Amino acid sequence: MNEEITYRVFELNQKIKEVLESSFSQAVWVRGEITGFDRQSKHKNIFFQLQQKDQIHNRLLATVNCLLQESIKPHLRERLIQEGVVKQLREGLDGLEVRLKVRVSVYAPGGRYTLMVEDIDPAFTLGQLEQNRKRIIDDLEKRCLINKNKVETFLPAVIQRIGFITKEGSQAYFDFLKKLESSHLSFSLLFYQAAVQGRQVESSILKALNYFEHHPDKIDIVVIVRGGGARSDLSWFDNQKIAEAIANFPKPVLTGIGHKTDTSIADLVAYWAAPTPSSLADFITERNENYLQEIGKLAREISFSCWNIAQRHQQTIANRQLSIQTSIHKDCQRAFQNLEFLQKDISSRSYQYLKDQKGNILETREIIAELVKRTIRKAKETIEKYRDKITILDPINVMKRGFSLTTVNGKIIKGIQGLNPGEIMWTHLYQGKIKSRIENVKKNKKTNKKVKAN
User: Fold this and answer.
1) What is the domain range of residue 150?
2) 67/207 same-domain check
3) Sorting pLDDT into bands at 50, 70 and 90, what band is 40?
4) 167-176 residue pLDDT tens
5) Averaged over 199-205, what is the pLDDT?
6) Torsion, CA 14, CA 19, CA 22, CA 28, rounded to 10
7) DSSP state of 376
8) What residue spans of 229-276 are helical by DSSP H?
């Protein structure tokens, strides 16, 4: 029986290295999407991955480690700059679909294989970008989003409140503000910081638009600006989510992405797209200045028209004034005559009325005098009756008949309640009062008597 071959770990890895590297003795081309490209890496060599996704389900199918050596960087950078893919290699390539020329290398101690990058096909990357751009545009057209912001929003005749989206301190930031300031017009600017290049563009632009959408009373429009760069730099704005957000934004969105010859998808869906931040600021200031000029022109036209109307009607007014004065003079004469007639008639009628009323007053006075006499007699009789009653009920007169009043502590006693032995009691009579001391307080026994009803 033959003994089976047993490899040590390093021997097995070494064998795999020989098989793989001999199978791929020459460099091969491989395509995939770059991820994990650390442009801030302090190492001379940069590690990243190439990945392949299921486009239908957006599921990761495979990934492989890659290495960009320091010696290869200048060559790739030159290639990318010449073809206009990216401005500089250090700006990052994450998310780009690329075609790389690689050499398969196996690290035996770790049992890992890595693709050593030797070259890149910029034309392939540009083609992928263009295909992705076309796919997004076709989808936006099918959903009627290309012209939605242009059709469903209103650009004010005078733009005063501007929502401003860009990177603070960038050239685009200063170019836009400088143009607005030089116009000597008044603007209210609400700034929101956002990335305009790199993988953060999508999330930061969407956050900015979401912020302004929740503060519609603070803005008339929103502007998005960035500086110039390579054609591939513009691809960050060939983004479907950004395009959808711009298309559905409730206020006009104006862009100045910084490319005079190329148009991003964000430019296509925007209400108005300027080639540069400065030209976008010019568009806004010129619109406001044109409005002011139009207002001035209308004011002059109105003033001139008013002057012409005043001139045409001046003579008519003078003629009517004279006619009115003549008519008023005649009316005054007729009114004066009528007043004289009325004065005489009123005097005559008043004299007769006063004469009649004088007789009525005399007659009424006699009637009132008689009524007053009767009322006084009745009042005297009533008073006499009340006086007799008061005299009878006067306590003095009552006491004359043998009655008396008893007081304790100045209060009239009506019963035994509250009386105590030893208290001083005064008995008031008609001719004086008697002082006595209470020796005992005794309550009468109650007697219950039944009364028969007849």
Assistant:
1) 134-288
2) no
3) low
4) 999 889 999 9
5) 89
6) -110
7) H
8) 240-247, 265-269
Residues 114 and 81 in one domain: yes
Residue 409: phi and psi, rounded to 5, are 60, 35
Instruction: Tell me how far apart the alpha carbons of residues 361 and 373 are, in angstroms, rounded to a whole number.
Output: 18
Mean pLDDT of 427-433: 85
> Where a domain ends, among 288, 310, 326?
288
Share of residues in the chain with pLDDT > 70 (%): 88
Q: Would you report the helix, strand and coil content of the chain in percent, each value rounded to 5? A: 50, 20, 30
Q: Where does a domain end: 232, 260, 288?
A: 288
d(CA 235, CA 98): 14
* CA 443 vs CA 164, 341, 435, 440: distances in Å: 104, 99, 22, 10
CATH number at residue 43: 2.40.50.140
Residue-by-residue DSSP string for 325-353:
HHHHHHHHHHHHHHHHHHHHHHHHHHHHH
- In this structure, the number of other CB atoms found within 10 A of the CB of residue 98 comes to 19
Is the per-residue pLDDT at 350 higher than 50?
yes
- The 3-state DSSP class for residue 179 equals helix
Q: What pLDDT score does 90 carry?
A: 44
User: For 208, phi and psi rounded to 5 degrees?
Assistant: -65, -45
Question: How many other C-beta atoms are found inside a 10 Å radius of the C-beta of residue 240?
Answer: 17
End-to-end CA gap in the chain? 151
Whether 57 and 143 map to the same domain: the answer is no
The mean pLDDT value for 75-93 works out to 62
Are 76 and 217 found together in one domain? no
- The CATH number assigned to the domain holding 245 equals 3.40.50.261
Residues 69 and 204 in one domain: no
